Amino acid sequence: MNISQLAQAAQVTTDTVRYYEKQGLLSAPQRQDNGYRLYTAAHAEALRFVRGAQALGFSLAEIRAIQPQLAQGKFGRADIEQQLHTKMAQIDAHIHQLQILKKELASTFASLTCAPSQTVITTSATAPDSGSGAGAAVVRKAFAKPPRTR
Hints:
With 150 residues, this protein is mainly alpha-helical. It has five helices and six strands; from the N terminus they run ααββαααββββ. It has two domains: 3-75, Multidrug-efflux Transporter Regulator, Chain: A, Domain 2 (Orthogonal Bundle); 99-144, no CATH class.
């Protein structure tokens, strides 16, 4: 099959196919006499695997790391379970970071003391390392900006 047929079968763009090939996620296909790529059912299966793993939250680097074991038939159930447990732990850590960030945002919102129509200046804002990963500033006091004088 050609690249457009492969892309259509996997519901991706031809650019995605080319990108995965460049990244080593798909093996280089044979070339026809006219230079066009000639993909096989194995390419389609590899592409479906990559997309499925991405849908489960795996990065392209993580997928690339396990592909050699898959290709050699050395990726068993225990390996799959380990990868899934690791990914779930990463997700749990990310959820925890997001919960901290949400509390910081709520605290910042609650600390606003000026009227909604006024401009806010944050002269006494700090940006502690809370572990949220976002470096969110926690505003200790928010003051209304004084009116301009001419």
